[in-house]
Amino acid sequence: MSFELLPLEDADISIFKHDMQEAFQRGAAEWEDDPEEEILPESHIDKSLNTKGMVAYKAVVNGELSGGAIIVINGNHGHLDFLYVKSGIQSKGIGQKIWNAIETGHPEVTLWETCTPYFDTRNLHFYINRLGFAAVEFYNPKHKDPSAPDGDDGSDFFFRFEKRI
What we know:
Layout: E1 3-7, H1 13-29, H2 42-49, E2 54-61, E3 64-74, E4 77-85, H3 94-105, E5 111-117, H4 121-130, E6 134-139, E7 158-164
Parallel strand pairs: 4-5
Antiparallel strand pairs: 1-2, 2-3, 3-4, 5-7, 6-7
């Protein structure tokens, strides 16, 4: 398998967003019979893509756009906003290759942070067992996420993870 993690280009943005939204929606469908709400609104992706310090990557496997990530770098602190692997090709090590390339490409970052929904055991396994993150906080109605996106009351159930390098 040939793998490259490349900067996201303007020409790739629409398919990148579509593939990311589809991957997130299908992931949620594993836990709900028919999730009615849009799991990842385009506005959340746009907010991330317009954040100061943002770096967006596309993963190209065997010449095909197969996933990607959006990170935000602020000095030695990095936040993984989104990481996805295109639906239908998960569990082939692509997500781990994406993350390894990000860490290698940003040696200045000594603390990485990300969040994931409590119910997504696949993500929990990925971040903890594959990438070495540790769960450090649990957001819920009694402990709301202070950085919840606009329009979100911050009462969703999410784990916050950290990885110190």
